Amino acid sequence: MHEPIEHPQPFEHWRLTVFYVLVGLVIGFYILRLFNLQILQGTNYRVRAEDNRTMEISTPTQRGLIYDRNGYLLAKNVPSYNVVITPAELPTDEGGIQEVYRQLSQLIGVPVNNGEINEETVRNFTPCATDLGIAQIVYIGDTNAPYSPIRIKCNIDQQTAMIIRERAADLPGVGIEVESVREYPTGSLTSTIVGFLGPIPASEEADYRARGFLPNRDKVGFAGVEYSLNDLLIGQNGKRVVEVDAAGQILRDLEPPVQPVPGYSVKLTIDTRLQAAAEAALVNWMDRWNRYFGEQRYTSGVVIAMNPKTGEILAMVSYPSYENNRMARFIPAYYYEQLQRDPYRPLLNHAISAEHPPGSVFKLAAALGILNEGVVTPEQKINDPGKITVEERFFENDPNPRTRDYVCYIYKTTGGGHGDLDFIHGLAQSCDVYFYKVGGGYKNEVPKGLNIWRLGEYAKAIGYGRVLGIELPGEQDGLIPDPDWKRINVGENWSTGDTYIATIGQGYVLSTPLQVLVSMATIANDGKLMKPTIVREVLDSEGNVVQPFEPKMLWDITQDPVIHVYDENFLQTGEMKTVAPWVVKKVQEGLREVVVSGTASTIFEGFPIPSAGKTGTAEYCDNVAQKKNLCQPGNWPAHAWYVGYAPFDNPEIAVVAFVYNGDEGARLAAPVVRKVMEAYFNLKEVDTETVGSSQP
Fold first, then answer.
1. Among residues 182, 234, 232, 229, which one has the least CA distance to residue 208?
2. Nearest-angstrom CA–CA distance, 99 and 280
3. Three-state secondary structure of 54-94
4. If DSSP states are collapsed to H, E and C, what string results for 243-303?
5. What is the pLDDT of residues 48-100, one digit of tens each?
6. Other CB atoms closer than 10 Å to residue 448's CB: what's the count?
7. Are 238 and 59 in contact (CB under 8 A)?
8. How far apart, in whole angstroms, are the C-alpha atoms of residue 304 and residue 642?
């Protein structure tokens, strides 16, 4: 029996075709993929590969120092010691690791284990600001970068740091990191001038990163000259570009290291000795009167001293102040919040940022104007009966004027006035009625007063109503009001009374203590307004002067036409004018008479150096006074002002004192200025004797 013969099936070529197509597709896919990776995106991947094997390390620089004019350090860099662990350098066995942790815990007081590692704790982890134990901190560091040191505890004392270094053999992987932190030797005495540092703000991170600074490490100025001169002080970080392995271990430098460039140092115009004397004069005088009244009536104030010929600020006290050393390593949230909630705002530099009614110290502007515009002559007598009654109009033909009494300050105590006064004695006695009449006009006695528009011109010419450009943050421009300002901001027309009270520095007029000082310094300096400055010299890291001091005159009111000319309708003509030199001399004579026979004569009796000055008592009603229910009609509280200069014939120093809620300038502020002047001339004598004794 024959078995059936099986005939082979014919070969199906389509299967082979499908196979080839599939193979071709696979090969084509990989070819396209390789083409994409190596050709189209080759550059991108090469850069990424290069980034994976390279690391850029920022080397911190040294911030510049801050000195006073005599070379006394106001801000310096001191070492701060941090304990760090490099996870990759710990022992290989678990027992050895735990022994390192245990010994370190005993030295620095951080527990070996504390807290749990989870997504939230890792996300919120910040070295030196955590409750985690050593093991948990190292775990986070090992996970992120095993060859990078991670901080376990910051700012340990030097002795503990030295012990850890000495026991390096017993503590493998443990090290001491030394970082530079700011220290302020004079503390609160100069904190509103010097300021403090803080972390790079989030809004400025991109800019600082582009300049080579690290937000989590480097600090920038937050206040004072630390802030305003930050770009000079901060320097430039160095840089290393290194090759690293997959674990982050440094293998070699790929480029020559770029060394850090230290910041410039700054020598300020401040004399720390005079600063201390000025603060003591202010605080002790307020304390004396507080003890007299048996309550804390006087709590804050300002003292500024400057050289009127150069604009150098010799002392600048803003009281109360704050302790900037508490901000040196980090800014304590509770302390910062406490300072912000303080109603007297110690974080604010009141010398340049607080705006108050200047009161009678503002009469210098009117004094210049009434003589220069010919409103009165120096010899012309103006009568002060103690009180005048004026028809207050809101426009020239106001059909319903209201009558209002305007009194001189002595009327409240004597019931009378100063009688007939010429210019010198009107200024010396600070007679309000005299200045009411010459400022706003009064019947036939002064047919046409200075007027608010021209008053504003003379005020601005001596420094009011403008930012003067001192190298400190937060300077304010004050307020010299006019009818346009009032219509826009108050919604009313200007009135006769507005001009009267603006002439004596009340009403809407606001100024900073610095502006008051500059106004007096301009008169003392024969009309030359010098730019106030806090910076004397800029030094490089070797102590060489790279920017010497050069006084800058902004203008001379007797030479530079800075005053607009007005016609009989008080409209600007387009012309500009100067102040006649004789006018400045007459104002100087009036200010001299203030301390000879005027409102400050008792305070300056027996003062050996001839001086000149002006008292000021400025009524106010701010939020603090309202909260204390002090704003009683006809009996508002008042700030105390005094501003003066000495010697009269060759001024070396001008000083302003301001006491918040100080009642009377002659009583609360003038004695402070006298004390500061005495300290200045005593220090000058000591310095002269020291220089003389040091010469062969």
1. 234
2. 56
3. EEEEEECCCCCCEECCCCCEEEEEEEEEEEEECHHHCCCCH
4. EECCCCCEEEECCCCECCECCCEEEECCCHHHHHHHHHHHHHHHHHHHHHHCCCCCCCEEE
5. 555 556 777 778 899 999 999 999 999 999 998 999 999 988 998 999 999 99
6. 12
7. yes
8. 11
